[in-house]
Structures are given as C-alpha cells and as structure tokens.
Amino acid sequence: MSFQDKILFNPIGTISSPYKEKFGIPRQPGLVTAARATLTLLPPYNQPEIVRGLEGFSHVWLIFVFHGTQAQGWKPTVRPPRLGGNARLGVFATRSTFRPNPIGLSVAELCDITIQGNHITLELAGADLLDGTPILDIKPYLPYADALTHASAGFAPDAPSPQQTVVFSAKASLQCAQKQAQYQTDVRLLIEQILSQDPRPSYQHGQQAGRVYAMRLYDFDLRWHYPASGIEVLELADFD
Ligand code: SAM
C-alpha cells in the first residue's frame, strides 16, 4: 500500500441524539450527562456476537465522522473558541471538527445494550454527538490505560469553564414537565446542563444583552436569553 492510497472505512452504526444542530452541543463528552443517545448497529455489523462481553464495561470510546462539517474541509490552523477566537493554533493541537480526516473521538457512558434479533442498540449517556453521526468503531474504555490524571492540557484548562446559573420561566418549567414523558429524559436537567456550559462563542460574552438565542433539541427550539446575570430559559417552542 502506498501513502497515496485512500483508506475506505464503513460506518458500523449511526447515532440518534437530541442534538439536531451543531450549535449548543457541549464541547466535549461527559459535560451533559443527562443527554441520552442511541447507537444502532448497521448491517453487516448488527450481529449479536459482535457486542459479546461489552456489557461489562461502564464506558466506551466512539470513533466517528464529523459528518456535519466534513464538506467544509480543513485548514492547518484553527481558532479554538476557548481562546476567544483570536489565536490560531495548529489543527493537531486542537479538537476542532475541521481536520484533514474529519474523525472524532468521544467517551460515553454505556447504559444498556439491547438485542432484538438483528436490531442491536447501545444506550449512551454524556455523548457530544450530532444526530445522525456515523460511527466508525466502538472500543471499551480502559481506566488503567486511558485515565491519565497527571497529563498536562496545553492551552485547554484542566476543568470545564465555570458554570452559569440557569433559571426557567414559568412557561418553560411547564413545558419541560410535559416533554419529560415524551422523551423519557429529564428534559429540565438536560437543558440546565447544556446551558450552564454557556454555548455562546466566547467573543459574544458580554455583548448580547437582550438577544434571544435558540438551539434545536429533539423536535423543539430551546430559547433563552441573558438577563443581568445568569441565563433564563424562555420557552421550548415548536420547531417550524
Ligand atoms: N470529543 C470529540 C473529539 O474530541 O474528537 C469532539 C470534540 S468537538 C470540539 C465537539 C463538537 O463537535 C461539538 O460541540 C459539536 O458542535 C461538534 N459535533 C459533534 N458531532 C458532530 C458531527 N457529527 N459533525 C460535525 N460536528 C459535530
């Protein structure tokens, strides 16, 4: 094989997740533990024996394609949102989605494996994946090898950004309760965890008083704004 040969991979599964658009998805996995996603295995990988033994692992690595940004290509340098969008760093020093090979790597909690004939699904928590993400591989997470607590993190801080306080309007509170049964998810906790990360790019911080933000979750538009301090959820509007 020469270095110019293309390497073809087949997706082994696809993700169904509440995140219907890129904006608002947490920047890394594990930050929004209330987010549930389902990985469905595709033929010819949808064979029960392919997941034999996986149930013993609490977490899995997912290797996937950044299909939502793939068409936009890549550049050797990118502006990490963490640095306010000003400084340029080499793409290999970042977790940017715009990479020479648009491949992502995320760890997720493995909550359940369901096998009904050839319909095989993995229930996951905490994934940072767009709905429809193609999965290339699943590997068990090995704490003794994968958890390197002494590692240094370059420009990325050792901890996620400080969390914002999130409050709900009366209307949004009621809507969360109504959606809870529909999605079998703690919708209020999900929203609280997403917004406490403050999805705005950091260059917009402090500039957007009065502006209403929206992101699509499941089949609704989540709308919020920034009052004098913290974040207020305004409503869960029908998607149009
Ligand atoms: N944990 C992964 C990694 O390190 O490879 C992803 C990190 S990347 C900074 C996280 C962002 O990828 C999310 O905030 C979301 O906007 C974006 N994302 C998730 N799934 C995607 C997909 N299928 N296509 C394009 N972008 C995606």
Automatic annotation (TrEMBL):
It comes from the Bacteria. Keywords: Methyltransferase, S-adenosyl-L-methionine, Transferase. SUPFAM superfamilies: YaeB-like (SSF118196). Pfam families: TrmO_C, TrmO_N. One of its GO terms (molecular function) is tRNA (L-threonylcarbamoyladenosine(37)-C2) methyltransferase activity. Residues 9-150 form the TsaA-like domain. One of its GO terms (biological process) is methylation. Belongs to the tRNA methyltransferase O family. This is tRNA (N6-threonylcarbamoyladenosine(37)-N6)-methyltransferase TrmO. It comes from Thiothrix fructosivorans.
